[in-house]
Amino acid sequence: AAPARGHPTAPESPCCAWQLHQDHLELRCGSTLMRLDFVWLRDHCRSASCYNAKTKQRSLDTASVDLAIRPRAVRADGTTLFLTWPDGHVTRYGLEWLVKNSYEGQKQQVMHPRILWNAEIYQQAQVPSVDCRRFLETDEGLKEFLQNFLLYGIAFVENVTPTKEDTEILAERISIIRETIYGRMWYFTSDFSRGDTAYTKLALDRHTDTTYFQEPCGIQVFHCLKHEGTGGRTLLVDGFHAAQQVLLHAPEHFELLTRVPLKHEYVESVGGCHNHMIGVGPVLNVYPWNNELYLIRYNNYDRAVINTVPHDVVRRWYHAHRALTAELRRPDNELWVKLKPGKVLFVDNWRVLHGREAFTGYRQLCGCYLTRDDVLNTARLLGLQA
Questions:
Q1: CATH assignment, 16-104
Q2: pLDDT of residue 4
Q3: Hey, which bits of 67-153 come out as E strands?
Q4: What is the location of CATH 3.30.2020.30 in the chain?
Q5: Which fold has domain 119-382?
Q6: Quick check: 184 pLDDT over 80?
Q7: Which residue among 59, 126, 138, 230 is least crowded, i.e. fewest CB within 10 A of its CB?
Q8: 135-148, pLDDT tens digit by residue?
Q9: CA distances from 96 to 9, 14, 19, 336 (A)
Q10: With 80 as the cut, is the pLDDT of residue 34 above it?
Q11: What phi and psi values does residue 286 have, to the nearest 5 degrees?
Q12: pLDDT band for position 348 (50/70/90)?
């Protein structure tokens, strides 16, 4: 039998037509052609018996839906699709909702709007720092800060009292602090009190932190409380900008870096600190439906033995890794910042790599890690897309 066809009955409606197939509904609204599985259409019903609009939670038991279900009747008007199921239940969908929430609609959208940058792009944007008082006491200041952070992956707060306690108050304005093996709030000097290169005066190449966690920390906070000496500038590189250049010029390298899992490892036995952490994941992590990059895991210091890659892939992986490293090390991608007491830096550790130049003298930083979910939650509650 030929597929059933239909079209909106309202003459003022947007261009919309539907066609029934054996297991799905084909629906065209404007320029979007959607293929909606019947089980999906039944599962996402927003009627009072299937969905609790107050709690925004599904009430329908998905396991009770017949996997061979097919609507008994379908119709559409200018704004709404109606499906009547074999048991007489009626499901209504707004056409705009379907366009937004269908696979085809989501594929055209980004989860996290952002501005990719190199040093010149960021400097020309003249992204303002937010004053500490405005950040702490007004929603407008907090929203401006978070918008900058979401777009660029870094943001600054100025005029902060240079103490660990005041830095902690600042961090808690946007998130729950993530306690790790390094504690809740940490002091950071060159006393080699931990078994990590960071606790020295040596230069640190660009990297992301906690690649050896199964879920790397989302946001890192830095506040230089004191520096009596020279050097020590902080290096920042937009990893997503570098990865985008690899995608443009060598898509096969980009694809390989999203597919090959690696281990990162942290082994520590210094004083009373004994830890052995292992995190597993590819260098680049993308949403599979739109290929949008959401996490880069890059740390040459902590990358463990590569024993998860067969011999016929490992050489190609090294070529891909070299291509990404070359982009990350391009001088025009390097943003150098001198941290000073009172200026707090927030870094998206899933996107922006950081490093530092060697330094002399006594240098003390404090900081913490923030839970990414809570930062994004704060942004969404202020009306931002995050």
A1: 3.30.2020.30
A2: 55
A3: 73-76, 80-84, 90-94, 130-131
A4: 16-104
A5: Double-stranded beta-helix (3.60.130)
A6: yes
A7: 126
A8: 999 999 999 999 99
A9: 17, 11, 18, 45
A10: yes
A11: -125, 155
A12: very high
- Averaged pLDDT, 298-305: 95
Pairing mode of beta strands 130-131, 154-158 = parallel
124, with CB counted inside 10 A (0-12, 13-18, 19+), is: exposed
Quick one: angle between helices 251-259 and 311-328, nearest 10? 110
Residue 271, pLDDT score:
83
Two structure tokens written together for 351: 């996107």
Q: Is residue 177 a contact partner of residue 368, using CB atoms and an 8 Å limit?
A: yes
Helix (H, G, I), strand (E, B) or coil at 373: helix
d(CA 135, CA 331): 33
Render the burial of 216-235: b for 16+ CB within 10 Å, e for the rest.
bbbbbbbbbbebeeeebebb
Contact 338, 222 (CB under 8 A): no
CA triple 224-173-337, angle to 5 deg: 30
Domain span(s) for CATH 3.60.130.10 in the chain? 119-382
Query: What does the alpha-carbon distance between residue 224 and residue 366 come to, in Å, rounded to a whole number?
Result: 7
